[in-house]
């Protein structure tokens, strides 16, 4: 009994094969079993099926594409293969045929001009939903303002966001990590969250923000200055994240040095017997001093060992500390400093270098008209620091960290899109349920409708604008505007006022580079959950007291 033909083969028999002939391939029927399989004919059939499938796919895409164009009322915009916030659009590099997530930044100066209005559409012809992108504040008010009667919500659940929408999915998943919250909620749930959260943002909190920002400024600049002097002056392998531990490891070198520096007057001027009294502060200072000495001793030993085992002709490290130890080792024995003297010198250098590099609380700039005294600013003086506020507003306008506000129509609705500048009125567009309207916050901040010469850094444009004003829109507008606005602004003003009091900030130019060219070079978007810029080369120059 011949074994039965497998099913997949039988499927491809042609009627010619069944009649023991194959006109197409000229087979002689004699001797050819009825069950002979005509492989070429079968391949032809697979090809037919694939072609048919492709045709079906293309037709379905064309129909879907037409629906997307209808959804966005044929408003001009991108006709590209992929949705910018989804896979693969998000993963592929941003280029003319794939805007990707970066387009709102990369093309911020040109894109809306190119399409003739500040609301445009995206209709991807391969994959992804139709959406509007708008740099218009009236559109923002309709979709993101959180008005009672809105037909737009933040895209519902992270899980319900289509899987092609990787970035959106990731953003929502991240901000929902700890459950439903004010940022992700909508409707009555949002109102309830806001009612409870709102009172937490009160003057007492801002008082704390102010105080802690100033404290952190000193901790930060101390650590920063220590790091530089330790690395460059002494070749010590200090690490920002994991500072080295002094002595027996119970204290970081940074903490020990801080204590010693803060209390050096006690150690220098009090008689020894008083220093040894069992008071908390004296105990701590003694302990810190011992730990630091043990650390320095260890460092000197290491340097000596390095110098002794130095491979002939190989340079040792060029830091001041190593060179000091090396010079001492070269001295004739009678002139040599002993270890304690060497440490004394090293410590003094470290101490002196650190104190002169660190930002002293007492440093004061003669330029400041507000902080005219030898002290830190207080929160009560906030209003007088308006120039600092305007500088911060302008920087945030140029790099708005909350760069997209994504909304979705939960029912069929309408959108009133203001006509281009110079044309009165607005156009009403029908927006089907499920269509996204994305407020492009970068576009808003660079929109010539709202700002003249938007590409220029001009803090003066904010003169007289109050902290609550909606003219400044980088924190969003309407009832759903950023709850942390005053928190962020208080922190920024406190930090910037002391930083700018103590330091001049100078851009580091390439040879022959202008300020505008520098700005264009360094403003490279760094988009994670929020928008930032990559490394900005600047020089901080300590101000001298007048
Ligand atoms: C420079 C700093 C900040 C900027 C530019 C900023 C910007 C924004 C923007 C644009 C929104 C609206 C998002 C949307 O509707 O999709 C928002 C909402 C929000 N922000 Fe901020 N934000 C900043 C700092 C903060 C801080 C420090 C906090 C908290 C301490 C905070 C808490 C919130 C909350 C809770 C919401 C949701 C408000 C609601 O939906 O009712 N933000 N922020």
From TrEMBL:
<dbReference type="GO" id="GO:0004497">
    <property type="term" value="F:monooxygenase activity"/>
</dbReference>
<feature type="binding site" description="axial binding residue">
    <location>
        <position position="482"/>
    </location>
    <ligand>
        <name>heme</name>
    </ligand>
</feature>
<protein>
    <recommendedName>
        <fullName>Cytochrome P450</fullName>
    </recommendedName>
</protein>
<keyword id="KW-0349">Heme</keyword>
<keyword id="KW-0812">Transmembrane</keyword>
<dbReference type="GO" id="GO:0016705">
    <property type="term" value="F:oxidoreductase activity, acting on paired donors, with incorporation or reduction of molecular oxygen"/>
</dbReference>
<dbReference type="GO" id="GO:0016020">
    <property type="term" value="C:membrane"/>
</dbReference>
<dbReference type="InterPro" id="IPR036396">
    <property type="entry name" value="Cyt_P450_sf"/>
</dbReference>
<dbReference type="GO" id="GO:0005506">
    <property type="term" value="F:iron ion binding"/>
</dbReference>
<keyword id="KW-0408">Iron</keyword>
<dbReference type="GO" id="GO:0020037">
    <property type="term" value="F:heme binding"/>
</dbReference>
<keyword id="KW-0503">Monooxygenase</keyword>
<keyword id="KW-1133">Transmembrane helix</keyword>
<comment type="pathway">
    <text>Secondary metabolite biosynthesis; terpenoid biosynthesis.</text>
</comment>
<dbReference type="Pfam" id="PF00067">
    <property type="entry name" value="p450"/>
</dbReference>
<dbReference type="InterPro" id="IPR001128">
    <property type="entry name" value="Cyt_P450"/>
</dbReference>
<keyword id="KW-0560">Oxidoreductase</keyword>
<comment type="similarity">
    <text>Belongs to the cytochrome P450 family.</text>
</comment>
<keyword id="KW-0479">Metal-binding</keyword>
<dbReference type="InterPro" id="IPR050121">
    <property type="entry name" value="Cytochrome_P450_monoxygenase"/>
</dbReference>
<dbReference type="InterPro" id="IPR017972">
    <property type="entry name" value="Cyt_P450_CS"/>
</dbReference>
<dbReference type="InterPro" id="IPR002401">
    <property type="entry name" value="Cyt_P450_E_grp-I"/>
</dbReference>
<keyword id="KW-0472">Membrane</keyword>
């Amino acid at each position: 009994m011949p074994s039965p033909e497998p099913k997949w083969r039988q499927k491809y028999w042609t009627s010619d094969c069944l009649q023991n002939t194959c006109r197409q391939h000229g087979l002689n029927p004699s001797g050819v079993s009825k069950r002979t399989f005509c492989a070429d004919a079968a391949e032809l059939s697979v090809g037919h099926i694939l072609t048919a499938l492709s045709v079906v796919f293309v037709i379905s895409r064309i129909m879907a594409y037409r629906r997307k164009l209808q959804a966005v009322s044929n408003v001009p915009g991108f006709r590209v293969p992929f949705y910018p916030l989804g896979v693969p659009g998000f993963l592929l590099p941003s280029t003319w045929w794939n805007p990707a997530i970066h387009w709102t930044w990369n093309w911020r100066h040109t894109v809306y001009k190119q399409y003739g209005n500040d609301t445009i559409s995206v209709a991807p012809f391969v994959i992804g939903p139709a959406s509007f992108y708008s740099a218009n504040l009236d559109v923002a008010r309709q979709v993101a303002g959180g008005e009672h009667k809105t037909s737009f919500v933040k895209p519902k659940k992270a899980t319900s966001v289509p899987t092609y929408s990787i970035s959106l999915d990731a953003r929502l998943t991240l901000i929902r990590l700890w459950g439903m919250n004010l940022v992700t909620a909508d409707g009555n749930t949002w109102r309830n969250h806001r009612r409870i959260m709102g009172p937490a943002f009160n003057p007492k909190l801002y008082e704390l923000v102010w105080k802690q920002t100033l404290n952190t400024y000193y901790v930060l600049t101390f650590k920063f200055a220590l790091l530089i002097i330790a690395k460059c002056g002494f070749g010590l392998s200090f690490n920002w994240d994991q500072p080295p531990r002094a002595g027996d490891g119970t204290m970081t070198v940074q903490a020990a040095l801080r204590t010693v520096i803060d209390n050096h007057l006690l150690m220098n001027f009090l008689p020894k017997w008083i220093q040894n009294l069992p008071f908390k502060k004296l105990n701590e200072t003694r302990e810190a001093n011992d730990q630091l000495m043990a650390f320095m001793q260890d460092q000197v030993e290491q340097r000596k060992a390095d110098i002794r085992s130095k491979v002939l002709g190989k340079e040792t490290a060029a830091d001041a500390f190593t060179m000091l130890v090396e010079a001492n080792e070269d001295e004739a024995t009678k002139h040599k400093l002993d270890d304690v003297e060497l440490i004394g010198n090293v410590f003094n250098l470290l101490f002196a270098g650190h104190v002169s590099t660190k930002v002293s609380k007492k440093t004061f700039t003669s330029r400041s008209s507000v902080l005219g005294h030898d002290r830190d600013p207080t929160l009560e003086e906030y209003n007088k620091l308006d120039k600092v506020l305007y500088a911060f507003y302008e920087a945030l306008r140029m790099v708005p960290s909350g760069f997209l506000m994504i909304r979705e129509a939960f029912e069929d609705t309408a959108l009133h899109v203001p006509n281009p500048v110079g044309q009165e009125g607005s156009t009403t567009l029908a927006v089907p349920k499920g269509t996204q309207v994305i407020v492009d916050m970068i576009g808003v901040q660079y929109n010539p409708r709202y700002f003249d010469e938007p590409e220029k850094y001009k803090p003066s444009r904010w003169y007289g604008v109050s902290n609550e004003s909606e003219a400044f829109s980088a924190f969003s507008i309407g009832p759903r505007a950023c709850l942390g606005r005053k928190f962020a602004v208080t922190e920024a003003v406190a930090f910037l006022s002391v930083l700018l009091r103590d330091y001049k900030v100078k851009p580091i130019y390439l040879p022959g580079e202008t300020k505008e060219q520098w700005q264009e070079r360094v403003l490279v978007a760094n988009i994670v959950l929020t928008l930032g810029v990559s490394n900005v080369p600047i020089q901080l120059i300590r101000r001298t007291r007048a």
